[in-house]
Fold this sequence. Notes:
The complex is a heterodimer. By secondary structure, chain A is mainly α. Helix content of chain A is 57%, strand content 1%. Chain A has one domain (18-312): Ammonium transporter fold. In chain A, helix 2 (30-40) packs across helix 3 (43-66), helix 2 packs antiparallel against helix 10 and helix 14 runs antiparallel to helix 15. Chain A is globular and about 85 Å long. Among the domains of chain B are: 115-275, NADH-ubiquinone oxidoreductase 51kDa subunit (Rossmann fold, 3-Layer(aba) Sandwich), CATH 3.40.50.11540; 369-437, no CATH class. Chain B has helices spanning 120-129, 142-145, 170-177, 179-192, 207-217, 236-244, 264-275, 306-312, 369-373, 380-388, 392-397, 408-412, 419-437, and strands at 23-25, 31-35, 45-46, 53-54, 59-62, 71-72, 77-86, 93-101, 156-160, 197-203, 223-227, 259-263, 282-288, 296-301, 320-325, 332-334, 347-352.
Amino acid sequence: MRTFEVIPAPHIKDPDDVQKIMRDVLISLIPVTVFSGFIFGWYAWVLALVGIFGGEAIEYVIMRFFRKQKNFKSDGSASVTGLLLALNVSVKLPFWAFLIGLAFALIVGKHIYGGLGTNPFNPALVGRAFLLMSFPTAMTSWVKPSFPKFWLSPWDVQTTATPLGILKEHGYSAVHTGYLKLFFGNVGGSIGETSAFLLILGFIYLLIRKRVSLHIPLSYVGTVFVISSIFWAVNPEKYGDPIFHILAGGLMLGALFMATDMVTSPITPKGKVIFGIGCGLITMVIRLMGAYPEGVSFSILIMNAFVPLIESATRPKKFGYGGVKKNG
Amino acid sequence: MPISTFKGGIHPPYRKLSKDEKIEFAPLPDRVFLFLTQSAGAPPKRLVEQGQDVKTGQKIAEISGFISSNLHSPITGVVREIKKMTHHIYGKPDEVIVIERTGEDEWEKMEEMDWKDLESKVIIERIKEAGIVGLGGAAFPTHVKLTPPKDKKIDTLIINGAECEPYLTIDHRLMLEKAEEIVEGIRIISKVLGNPRVMIGIEDNKMDAVDEMKKHAEKYGMEVFPLKTKYPQGSEKHLIKVLTGREVPSGGLPLDVGVVVQNVGTALAVKEAVVNGKPLIERGLTITGGGVKEKKNVVARIGTQIEDLINFAGGFVGNVKRIVLGGPMMGIAIPNTTLPIVKGTSGILVLTEEEIDRGVKRNCINCGRCVEVCPMNLMPNRLYKLTYMKRYDQAYEEGLFDCIECGSCTYICPSKIDHVKFIKLGKRVYSALRRGKK
């Protein structure tokens, strides 16, 4: 007698899968990655490629030899972590140091919890925090942007301070970077954080592909806008204006690509808004009062820790609980 | 008339391959397999013995409890065997009556009725006698639904013509070909319930059915509403929500909000039972899917073996992998084709390798799509994780039993997680643990 498989319903499934989501994230980061080489020199591209392929290689070794998965099929998340980490470091970071940071990101940031989906903290930011502590000099020296001279290597170019660094040291009156320059990104900073324009472009692609929602970016950037407006209104000599705060530093990269990581952000729309506001608050506290000039990555890591609490506090109201009163 | 929709839901490919195929009568089967359990509730008490002759329409098993239904012989023949088998739908051991056909139908019908002058009680008694159950899939005995407790006032009767499951087209065809009879059935049900407001809901991918139903229903004051095409539009609770704005309370029934819902096929069966005196011995169903040669809508006798119907539809084509009774979202896969159809079988779906997604199962990445599509506003990701971790009490707190098992979460999940499987399992384990405590 011919037999057929007995599998529980539903019997049809949406063709979308995790790999396709990760591929879309990689695609969305292409513009900013390509552009980074033109501002900071070819070494930026080396780091990006090391991130993508090194990430996959490390993932393979972990899955195949440590977690003993014989039929390992990559979900593509390691290359996303690798690329995002590359975009979050200075081009002055040597590639071997970057690889150590990436291995830390994937192992301590992800696999010790059980792999993709189980990690409470954004792995790329865990890697960045590790690198910031281990290689503080390389991670905080910024090469002078030299668009479009991609043939320059980071060791030949003089260093500069980021706009946020100048703000921290000398106050806003010392900052002479125009909005347009900030918007297009020909300024010092991490490899992928400078061009708000290209980051937004990539994010729009993700929006069109329905991979992200606007809740986190809007609430995050909105909070930064409100708080910086208040401080700027009180003392415009010392504090940066809101547009500056939004365009400078890693806010765009953080709000659009790091805070929106599905695994480490709340699932509910309300929770996402709370998460975004929290990120904005902590970012501004660090920028205005902390020791570091920039607070995006720490704010996101801190808010990552609150995700379970936020989620359980914002569970949707279930169908059939007090919608309409019982009749009769 | 634009009607608002409910929150959540999905848009799977509809693949209504058989929507233009006229309803045909399947040939009389040589043998039928009748599980005693044909409906929700208690199995009826068997009235026949091995070797006994039976006629078409003869009662062979009798109601045994409040929620239970009569069973009639679908063919004329002899009881060949009575055996124990595992019920392929309910998954429990059950008794099967095997009847071998000896010739053409010799009917044993009930008397025909002119229902317009009859009391409700008499009509309900007839519906009960005829063994009518909900033909939408859940197979709940219809006479029970039509006997609401005295303290519940029913002010609305909703007729479900949504047919939101992909592939299935039998309700669509019934509405096109038998609108007049369906409407008569609705009038009978409506009379029994004390003439409430009648609302007929049909998904707007079947506008021809909407028009046809309007033509026959509006002169009796019934309203026909095109509904947004979205799965699970045909879910009782969501149909009620969309049409009346009322929300069936958690753990409650439609009659808690003054509503009774009946499927269009059930309305037709009610008409045939009352007007023509015909018990429920056959039903309409769709034979479809990429793995069957001719897609068909047929009327087949209850208990017909699946293989007889697949042969009637020209047999298999392609790489057939799975056979499903019902639609692809909530239907039940069966291991072989010797099994029979039951009263609740709305379709036979033959799926090929190409129609089944075999994506890689991965960890939940918290993308939130399951929460977005859940029509009950639950968090399927959490219910899955909680039942997986055997934290049944917490799963219960978070709405385990509110899940209607529509499968939207599992359909949409990019990590290919089987939420529904775990939720169903969780419900069973939780109930078993509760019973243990008592």
